[in-house]
Design goal:
This protein is an all-alpha fold. Helix content is 57%, strand content 0%.
Amino acid sequence: MKKEIANGGGRHRIKMAKCLAEPNGTAGIIWAKTGTCHQCANRILFPTRLTVSKARGYAGSVFLYGVYGRDYPVFMANVARCELSVNGVPNPLPIDLPDLPSLDDINSLMDELESFTTPLNEEEKRYHQQLFNLYTHERDLQKALAGDLELLMQLRLDNRINLLQMNNLKNLQVDLQKDHLKLVSVMDESKIDHKLFVPQMNELLERAMRHIEKIIGENNFLLTFDSPPDKASKIFTIPNLSDTGV
């Protein structure tokens, strides 16, 4: 039996989702740089105002990339373009997106998004509405990433995180993002390839998650990230880029 993760319906939403999925089903996500399959799926689901928040490894992915990816302002511009296109505006201005490789597990994840359903409870409805409001109003990347981390933590821990803990988590998030950008830069300079990037990035994420566990406690960590740090940090797999020229 497939695990139900998220969805929403309607012909207009489906047309919007198809537009947002371009190019090549990646929704503009550059693997490992701006997001993973979670951010790709969330972009495609944007018209439903839902996310794949129940997916495996989701909290770790959001901790690093946020809900819609590190370049979410570009994505929000693409939302506007797709809205014009779906509503019949001829030849809306294209958004300048790079030529992107396919994401490694996007096909397996999208198989889990077959049926459209509403959030399961009032807390999840409120979470998704707050998330939608955050990303449609906040244009500062760091504030957006910190904001959606706080929303997810409060949802999963029933508002048991205090201000000091949350500030410590946000500082950890900033430090991890700096380390991530340094490692991406090294990869861009061809000093390492994807096969070396993956274990190094997973190691950085695991180290950050062990700090998170110390801040919020073991039980709260498991409630938030679904598994211990050594497993929750494995959000990357080595992609098959042989068909993309990467």
